[in-house]
Amino acid sequence: MKQPLVTRRKALAGLGSLAAASPLVADHPPKLIGEPPGRIAPRVDLVNVLEFENMAARKLAPDVYATIAGGDRSFFERITFRPRMMVPTTHLDLTVSLFGEKMFAPVMVGPMARLQNYHPDGEVGMVRAASGAKSWMVVSSESSLPVEKIAAESKTTLWYQVFAEEDMSAVRAKMEQAVKAGCKAICITLGAPRPNGKARPAANWAKIDQMRKGLDVPVLIKGILTPEDAGAALKHGINGIVVSNYGGLSLHGTASSMELLPSIVDALGGKAPILIDGSFRRGSDIFKALAYGATAVMLGRPLVWGLAAYGPEGAQQVLEMLQTEVARDMAHCGRLTIKDIDRTVVKLHEV
């Protein structure tokens, strides 16, 4: 079946907005369309995450699909594995400790704005998927639904994401509201572009200090791309880092998050957890990030593909599929726990 036509311009226009958790459409959400002529494969027939993108493309109007299409996979393809044989791997342990809690596997639902643009269940559907897969979720401050409603449906750990805006009192109110609803960490996003390409208000450390003052939950910074900024964040009392370049839209020519990860890991030396997002599509991608020192990976678009095509069950299947693939790769490389995964299991090939 011929796929809906999505121009390169449309795809690039939407590439960074979802991962940045910025609103995709300011006032009028795009109208969802039903299944066009042709077959939508049964969910259980899909064998990898990339197939969910094809189904989402059939389910959504072309301009809606364009906002979640594609991704930069080039750096992942330069990394290969060094498998280990004859290592007993019957009892694999994917758990990760993060801020005093155990995460079932190092795969999280990242902050994404206005999910009702893609499925009527929106963030409620996504939190049900996260709960079913025993995954944590970061709720966007620009969600389709109030954080209280999302939290009421949750059976998993929630974090909350905000932007450093000009009206700091409004941002503080949102954070306090989220913590009251049960969110256990705050993620402050820096450098993310608006959907129209315009920059958000410039942030500085004084503003960040003001935002985190009085909060009794961990605070992370999302959008860190250099060792220098990562070190400065720790000096200002930030509890964790999220390496993210928002699809390279905030600055043309920015390296991928994966390419920047190792230097940031080396600079921090284990002093704080380091998470990452950006074009993760396979369990092997996640495994590579863990090998280079990431604590966990935040997912975006693949989960929206699952939600758009099949509802909460689709998003849950994407999460569980990736968890299973990580476990498979751990077994192939002879690593029984997440802590056992290091750079000796991977090789980076020069261009």
What is the topological layout?
Elements (H helix, E strand, L loop, with lengths): L7 H8 L33 H11 L2 H4 L13 E3 L14 E3 L2 E3 L3 E3 L12 H11 L4 E4 L6 H6 L5 E6 L4 H14 L4 E4 L15 H8 L6 E6 L2 H9 L4 E4 L13 H12 L5 E3 L6 H9 L4 E4 L1 H10 L1 H21 L13 E3 L3
Parallel strand pairs: 4-11, 5-6, 6-7, 7-8, 8-9, 9-10, 10-11
Antiparallel strand pairs: 1-12, 2-3
Summary keywords:
single chain; 351 residues; eight-stranded parallel sheet; alpha/beta; disordered N terminus; globular; two-stranded antiparallel ribbon; TIM Barrel; 12 helices
Describe the structure.
With 351 residues, this protein is an alpha/beta fold. It has a single domain (76-348), classed as Aldolase class I (TIM Barrel, Alpha-Beta Barrel), CATH 3.20.20. Helix content is 35%, strand content 13%. Strand 7, helix 7 and strand 8 form a beta-alpha-beta unit. Helix 4 (122-132) runs parallel beside helix 12. It is globular. The model is unreliable at 1-13 and 22-28 (pLDDT under 50).
Kindly summarize this structure in a few lines.
This protein is α/β, with parallel strands linked by helices.
Structure class = alpha/beta
The first-to-last residue Cα distance is 36 Å
Give the overall pLDDT as a whole number: 88
SSE order, one letter for each helix or strand: HHHEEEEHEHEHEHEHEHEHEHHE
Unreliable stretches covering 5 or more consecutive residues = 1-13, 22-28
Shape: globular
The strand order across the widest sheet is: 4-11-10-9-8-7-6-5
> How helix-rich are the residues, as a percent range?
25-40%
Q: Give the amount of beta strand, in percent.
A: 5-15%
Number of discrete helical segments: 12
For the largest beta-sheet, the strand count, sense and barrel status come to: 8 strands, parallel
Q: What is the number of E strands?
A: 12
- Please report the first level of CATH classification, the CATH class: Alpha Beta
CATH superfamily: Aldolase class I
Number of domains: 1
Q: Radius of gyration over alpha carbons?
A: 19 Å
CATH architecture: Alpha-Beta Barrel
